[in-house]
Amino acid sequence: MTIHPILLCGGSGTRLWPLSRKSHPKQFARIMGEQSLFQVSAKRLSGEGFAAPVVLTGDPFRFIVTEQLAAVELAPQGILIEPEGRNTAPAILAAAFWMAQKDPKALMLVAPSDHLIPQADAFRETVQAAVPRAQEGDLVTFGITPTRPETGYGYLELAAGSDAQADSPQALARFVEKPEAARAADMVAAGNFLWNAGIFLFTAETLITAYRAHAPELLAAVEAALKGADTDLGFTRLAPEAWSEAEDISIDYAIMEKADNLAVMPYRHEWSDLGGWDAVWMESPQDMAGNATSDHATAIDCSNSLLRSETPGQEVVGIGLDDMMVIAMSDAVLVAPKAQAQRVKEAVAALKAKGASQAVQLPRDFRPWGWYESLIIGGRFQVKRIVVHPGAALSLQSHHHRSEHWIVVEGTAKVTVDDDVQLVTENQSVYIPLGAVHRMENPGRVPMVLIEVQTGSYLGEDDIIRYEDVYARK
Questions:
Q1: Read out DSSP for 219-241?
Q2: Other beta carbons less than 10 A from residue 365's beta carbon
């Protein structure tokens, strides 16, 4: 039986700020290793017995999804674009309707795309062991053997007579909300509680039936959003108006806590949702003093601390630190005790309140054609570094308030300025007058890098008039 992975990647991951931000959340970042959490998740749920993944994400991330999948040589079965985040219950139902159009009995393995599960083979074996129960009509959730009294996770209480160490699905008594420390310690000691991983296995028709029974109010809105969806460039854009009518609710609250055809599949190997920098420290290689450091970080007389520099060329040094976390980027630095890791989202809220762009925007802005970053910003000028992927092209556009000067520093650019088209190679430049209709393309096989100098009365990204765009952006 083929398993269809349903990868959820619409979250913002604010607890891993400043590396994870709304513009480029943690699932797409390289936090543990050279590949993003999303890439590792997609690879983990691929190979024999697995179909190509179905991805649910937001519009800003649709090209990041395709680019990162292509980088690990995977092609998606489908990409559903949520007009706005409405939590997991509407998203998973949309995927179930989408799958049911092809095969109502299709097995869906729903998984977040930002979890750390190092033993991929063991996880796939655990999933296969749960398949029979899912085919019989059960909603199977996956529970992790707890290794400590964790207050950041929800728990699953097994029914009497169930075995938390079993190699097959067990009966589930109830879901338990994130507990206080003392309660968490009691549950771990009891031995009949598992961490709630937020991973599920069921057939499309079983899940839709559960929604009819327990959350019928979601059916009409989600089904209408799918029926009214637009398709472009391989993306399925759910209809915004219908989607906005769907309740913002998790699948746990909408379905799982009400259903009576539940089973829990124990998973006894390493797992983490990397829900904070303390979890990243815990899962990272450490020196004899318990310090986890990145390539550009140095710990002197420190202990049990996390030191990371996320910007090449920027060195971070900690002296005499104990149980601290220091995360440095070119535009923001986080310093806090590890015990306060869950409060990082308060920092994001505080920055939003003061209007700081660092709350949501990375210095590097990712686009379908590549990325750019601002190097210098003045009152009437801005200097950017722009990187364009091989074969990619920016939109044909003009500006009301600025002119631009482009200097190619790597590769070759094909530049259109009104009726003139020319190739601009390394150490050559071209001027774009205010109001000129222009486009930049990379006709080569290597990334093209240029420096852009903007001058004008207004330099905002919304000063763009698009006449033609290969990425169907509005």
A1: HHHHHHHHHT-EEETTEEE--HH
A2: 16
With beta carbons less than 8 A apart as the criterion, state whether 280 and 342 touch. no
* pTM of the predicted model as reported, rounded to 2 decimal places: 0.91
**Phi and psi torsions of 109, nearest 5°:** -105, 105
Please check whether residue 359 lies inside any domain of the structure. Answer: no
Express each pLDDT in 359-403 by its tens digit: 999 999 999 999 999 999 999 999 999 999 999 999 999 999 999
- pLDDT tens track for 70-123: 999 999 999 999 999 999 999 999 999 999 999 999 999 999 999 999 999 999
Alpha helices in 72-203 (DSSP H): 88-100, 120-135, 181-190
Q: Are 156 and 177 found together in one domain?
A: yes
**In the chain, how many domains are there?**
3
**What distance in Å separates the CA atoms of residue 116 and residue 14, rounded to the nearest whole number?**
17
Examine the domain organization and report whether 340 and 415 are in the same domain: no
**SS3 state of residue 60:** helix
313 and 390 assigned to the same domain: no
Count Cβ atoms below 10 Å from residue 346 Cβ, excluding itself.
12
Between the alpha carbon of residue 402 and those of residues 182, 393, 466, the distances in Å are: 60, 20, 15
Domain that holds residue 344: 277-351
Contacts 24+ apart (CB under 8 A), 20-26: 21/358, 21/359, 21/360, 21/361, 21/362, 22/359, 22/360, 22/361, 23/60, 23/360, 23/361, 23/362, 23/365, 23/366, 24/64, 24/362, 24/364, 24/366, 25/61, 25/114, 26/114, 26/274
Of 403, 465, 464, the residue nearest 431 (C-alpha): 403
Instruction: Please provide the size of the chain in residues.
Output: 474
Q: Residue 73 corresponds to which tokens in the numbers above?
A: 């040589």
* CATH code, domain carrying 54: 3.90.550.10
> Are 46 and 123 found together in one domain?
yes
SS3 458: coil
